[in-house]
Amino acid sequence: MSDPTHCPCGTEKAYAACCEPVITGKAPAKTAEALMRARYTSYVKANITFLEKTLAPEGRADFDRAASEKWAKESAWKGLTINFLKDGAEDDETGVVNFTARFAQGADEYEHREIATFRKEKGAWVFVDGKAPKPETVVKSGPDVGRNDPCSCGSKKKFKKCCGQ
C-alpha cells in the first residue's frame, strides 16, 4: 500500500481500526467480507498463523504453511478488490466473496481471482474453500469478415492482405 496509515485491505480505514483487531483476536470478523479482508491483510503482513486459524476444520489438514508463507513473503501485494458478495452478513450462516487480489513477484504482476466460501463455526466466520471463477464466454456480435472483404481497419485493402495476415 502506498499509504501506511490505511489498512492494506483497501477500506481507507486505519489498520488499527480495520483488520488489526480481527487478526489479533481482539474482535471477531462480523461478516464474511471482513474475514476475507483480514485474510488478505494477513498475506500482506505474512501472518500465516491467522490464515491457518481462520480455516474451516476440514481445510486445516491440507494447509501448506510453508508454501503460504513463501507466497506471502515473496510477493509485493498491490491491492484487493471485492467484486461481489452473496450473503455473509452478520445474521447469515454462510457467505460467498468474489475477489481479486493483485500482487507482484519480481517484475511480473499478477491477479489472483477467487470465489471464496465462508461459514460460521461456533459463531465465528471461517474460510471453507476457494474456486477460480469460470471464464466468461465471449460471443461475437458483429458480422463475419471474409478474406476478400475490405478490411475493417479502413485501409481499403482486402482483409487477407491487411489485418487477416
Question: How would you describe what is shown here?
Answer:
- With about 160 residues, this protein is of the alpha+beta class.
- The chain folds into two domains: about 15-135, Roll (Nuclear Transport Factor 2, Chain: A); about 140-165, no CATH class.
- It has helices spanning about 20-25, 30-45, 50-55, 55-60, 65-75; strands at about 75-85, 95-105, 110-120, 125-130.
- It has a four-stranded antiparallel sheet.
- α2 (about 30-45) packs across α5.
- The longest helix is centred in the first third of the chain and has 14 residues, at about 30-45.
In brief:
The protein is α+β, with helices and mostly antiparallel strands. The protein has helices at 20-24, 32-45, 48-53, 57-60, 65-74, and strands at 76-87, 94-105, 108-121, 124-131. A hairpin with a 2-residue loop joins β3 and β4.
